[in-house]
Amino acid sequence: MAISIALISDTHSYIDEGIIAHLNEADEVWHAGDIGAIDVVNRFPKGKVVRVVTGNIDDSEMRQRFPEELSFDVEGLRVLMVHIGGNPGRYARGIKSRIQESGATLFVCGHSHLCRVEHDRQLNCLYMNPGAAGIQGFHKMRTLLKFKVAGGKISDLVVVELGKRGMPGQN
User: Fold this and answer.
1) What does the alpha-carbon distance between residue 21 and residue 26 come to, in Å, rounded to a whole number?
2) Cβ distance 81 to 69 under 8 Å?
C-alpha cells in the first residue's frame, strides 16, 4: 500500500488552514527546515508521522527538538533530508558525499524558496525542494509537494500552489 507524503519547507513561522488541509490528506508530513516557530509543528494534524529538520533561522529550542539531518526509509525508499542542500550540479559543501554515504534514492532540502524536482543522473537520486510555504522571502508563489511512495518508487507527484508570497490565507 502506498504512503502519501506532504512535503513543506521554509514556513518561517507561518502556517494557515489551506496548508493544514493539504497536510490532513497525507499519511506523513515532512518539513525541510526554517520552521520559524514551534507553533507551526504543533499545528500539524495529529496522528501523522512527522519528520522535521531544522534550518538556518531555527533557534536553539528547535535545534534541541529536531535534528539538522534525517536519514530514513519509507516503503523501500531511502531518504536523506537537510535544509541547506543546494541542487544537482551545485550541491552545498559535503552534501554530495552525504547522499552517496547514506545510499539515498531521494534527497530532500529547502532553503532556496524555489520549488524544484530533478533526477540527478550522476548520483541516481531524485532531488526534491518543495519551495517555500511561508509568506516571507523572495519567492513569488508559495508551494508544497505531495506524492506517494510504494515499493521504493514515487508516484502521483503534485506541486501545490498555495498563493502569492505575502498573501496569507490565499489557497
Assistant:
1) 9
2) yes
